[in-house]
Amino acid sequence: VADVPAQSLALTFKPVAKSVADVLSVPEGYTATVLLATGDPLKAGVTAYKNDGTDHDFNNRAGDHHDGLFYFGLNAAGNGWDASNAQRGLLCINHEVAEDLGFMHPAGATDYGKDSTNQRPTQEIGKEVAAHGVTVVEVTKTATGYRINPENPLNRRITAATLFELAGIAAGSDAMKTAFSPTGQQTRGTVNNCANGYTPWGTYLTCEENWAEYFYRREDDSVRTPKELAGFKRYGIKGDTSGRYNWARAGANDSSDLYRRWNTGVSGATAAEDFRNIANTFGWVVEINPFKPDETPKKRTSLGRFAHEGAWPAPVTAGKPVVFYMGDDSRNEYIYKYVSDALWNEADANGGMAAGDKYLNAGKLYVAQFNADGTGAWLLLAMDNKAITAYPDYAFNDAADLLIHARLAADAVGATKMDRPEWGAINPLNGEVYMTLTNNVSEKNGRGVATPLDAANPRYYNGVKGEKAVAGNLNGHIIRWREASNDHAATQFQWDVYLFGAPASAAVDTNISQLTADNDFSSPDGLWFSAVNPGLLWVQTDDAYYTDTTNCMMLAAIPGQVGDGVSTTLTNKAVATNNGADQDVNTRVGKQPGDNLRRFLVGPKDCEITGMTETPDGKALFINIQHPGENSSETWATDGNMTSHWPDGGNARPRSATVVITRNDGGKIAV
Ligand code: FEO
Ligand code: CA
Ligand code: CA
Ligand code: CA
């Protein structure tokens, strides 16, 4: 890879206007078609989803809250990956949460709040558990466009009850042992499957993000070791909670450990009830072979435990390590990368889980440090790094303990706290890596409040948005870097900021990228470089700070390269921040995005746009609309009001859905 060649690529569509209507808007000449919404059947013979809360068999239906997704073209035999097949493929779709419980049950959910100590109906819990996880489903191009094929035997669900093997360095360690798996080699369930990834050997990666909120924990802290409590605190596993959905409190007649396993309590637990370590079996990158349902999915512990957004592979080269970039999406958390010990061999290109064992179980985990001068370093998280063993706040036992507590290890080496790292993407033209930093807002610990501004996270806002007082980085930005010598295994890099989100009407010190009515946005989240049209970047938003003006959206961009974006330096001058350090952000603004950034799509009300993948001919784009109408999910059952009825219209309950976008003249998308 070399410098970006002269751009032959140009955006060819007319920008879509901002909108707060309950519709999905795409440019003139394009069509968006709903493929698979929450509850839709995945198997022949499953009845159409009634969408009235009475269908319970989510093991045979699309789950809820569609998120990251990936298209694997099917080979002629229909049992392996053909990366060139645009006619027929398997879609792997994440289902992050079952958050809109009010829409999932007939008249709202029962006692699901984290403060509730009441028991919940087992049937409701079973349905919510099954609505989490991943869908694998065939999509086929027909004479009338792409359709789901319910006849493919590979169609299946992975849920919050599915069996997983724990693999890699932390598997089998004492901290992974539970009543279900006394050897610490297995666990059940994956939750909060946010963004995703894929491997060069034809498997799917799904990533566990806000898993820390799922556990019932009401035990007395005195039964915990100080190190356990330090881990709970650092990962946000709180006490005095029944967990996000109160899943541990199934009905009185159902004491199955399928429910008890969400309870971390240890007081008085028998060996058969002891799930004190259950939370350590969540927070991982999870590998699934979509082509081989008989291969048990694996949680890959060598990639570290945190609030994983996704895992994005660098392009592979024979004889070089396999590299994945990862973000930890919480306020003031870090960017990581994993570099395999094993060197890439093309013979593994359809290697399934055995190749996963080869490349994902042993490697080096690094965390990023962004320096003010535009350089950066990857800091090694390993027991032979003195900064780890000398860390005064936590004594790591061994490599397994380090991986289970990767956040503490990253603290120990002095990594750079970022404004919520979400999706990453690698530019196929030049190997540069992009990552969205969605926002960092909190009156207690947002950017510029408890965490000082720095060159890579330089924005601070203090004011009122809607009815809420807010402080921090409100609209987010997109950072990018180029590894030394364009080697993804390098430990040094150069970085700049490609783009700052902002309302077009904002003052120039906020609207640094000089966005216009055609491309202004807030809170970038999803990110995807087209492989078919190298240099074409897609950006999706998950926003709560510009929604009075517009629903969430997707933009297309042709972004240039590191060095021509925005660089920032901080000096101790004018801008007062809550943390007491007076700082001034000096920005050197390079190339503005201008016409090379255009709004391509605006979603229906109260949704997030997330997940992107394309067919290998570049003529179909798959995206997800997540949680339309979410702001009314808890209240509609009592007041009858829903903010969205998308996609079914009328008075229907809103549903998340996978959408396919094509151009009416059959051409490539966007360029
Ligand atoms: Fe589930 Fe960070 O988005
Ligand atoms: Ca996200
Ligand atoms: Ca988000
Ligand atoms: Ca969401």
Bound molecules: MU-OXO-diiron, calcium ion
- Share in helix: under 10%
Q: Averaging pLDDT over every residue, what do you get?
A: 93
What is the approximate shape?
A: globular
| Uncertain runs | 572-576, 578-582
Number of domains: 1
Share in β-strands? 25-35%
Gap from first CA to last CA: 22 Å
What order do the strands of the largest sheet run in, or round the barrel if closed?
13-14-16-17-18-26-25-21-20
Protein name: PhoX family phosphatase
Pfam families: PhoX
Organism: Thiothrix unzii
InterPro entries: PhoX (IPR008557), TAT_signal (IPR006311)
Keywords:
mainly beta, 671 residues, PhoX, 35 strands, binds MU-OXO-diiron, 9% helix, PhoX family phosphatase, single chain, six-stranded mixed beta sheet, binds calcium ion
What does this structure look like?
The protein is mostly beta strands. The protein has one domain. It has 9 helices and 35 strands. It has a 9-stranded antiparallel beta sheet. A 6-stranded mixed beta sheet has the order 8-7-12-11-10-9, covered by helices on one side. Strands 2, 3, 4, 5 and 6 form a 5-stranded antiparallel beta sheet that branches. A hairpin with an 8-residue loop joins β25 (477-483) and β26 (492-500). The longest helix has 10 residues, at 122-131. It is globular. The two termini are 22 Å apart. The model is unreliable at 572-576 and 578-582 (pLDDT under 50). Residues 96, 194, 209, 309, 329, 422 line the site of MU-OXO-diiron. MU-OXO-diiron binds at residues 96, 194, 209, 309, 329, 422. This is PhoX family phosphatase.
